[in-house]
Amino acid sequence: MIVAFSVTPLGVGEDVGEYVADAVRVVRESGLPNRTDAMFTSIEGESWDQVMDVVKRAVAAVEARAPRVSLVLKADIRPGVTDGLTSKVETVERHLAE
Q1: What element of type H or E holds 13?
Q2: CA separation, residue 35 to residues 11, 64, 65 (Å)
Q3: Of the candidates 25, 11, 98, which has an alpha carbon nearest to the alpha carbon of residue 60?
Q4: DSSP conformation letters of 38-97
Q5: Residue 88 has what pLDDT?
Q6: Strand order in the sheet with 2-10
Q7: CATH number assigned to the domain with residue range 2-96, chosen from the 4 options 3.30.390.50, 3.10.20.340, 3.40.50.970, 3.30.70.930
């Protein structure tokens, strides 16, 4: 499964990059395939429990320093698919090249 999520600290001002970095650090240290862009961090794992544990710990890292946290999450639950973070993008790029 792939989960794309965004953790936003609230009540800390406009510059939130330092807080978001705490969440991304948790994701990268998880060892699961992941990708971060300007809006979301995506993480891929074998099971709901495996991926959601990382999301929960990423939220907790921000929550430890911010009085309020907003979480946006989108999941693609597709058993048997691996390397979806890469293969989905490769498929789109292949169609663009046609």
Answers
A1: none
A2: 26, 23, 23
A3: 25
A4: SS-EEEE-SSHHHHHHHHHHHHHHHHTT-SEEEEEEEEE--TT--SHHHHHHHHHHHHHT
A5: 84
A6: 34-36, 41-44, 2-10, 68-76
A7: 3.30.70.930
Domain ranges within the chain, ordered by starting residue: 2-96
Q: Are 28 and 34 in contact (CB under 8 A)?
A: yes
Token look-up 């891929």 returns 44
Task: Take residue 28 and report the two structure tokens written for it.
Answer: 């990268």
pLDDT given for residue 44 in this prediction:
96
pLDDT greater than 90 at residue 16: yes
pLDDT in tens, 37-94: 999 999 999 999 999 999 999 999 999 999 999 999 999 998 887 888 888 888 899 9
SS3 6: strand
Judge contact between 19 and 62, C-beta under 8 A. Answer: yes
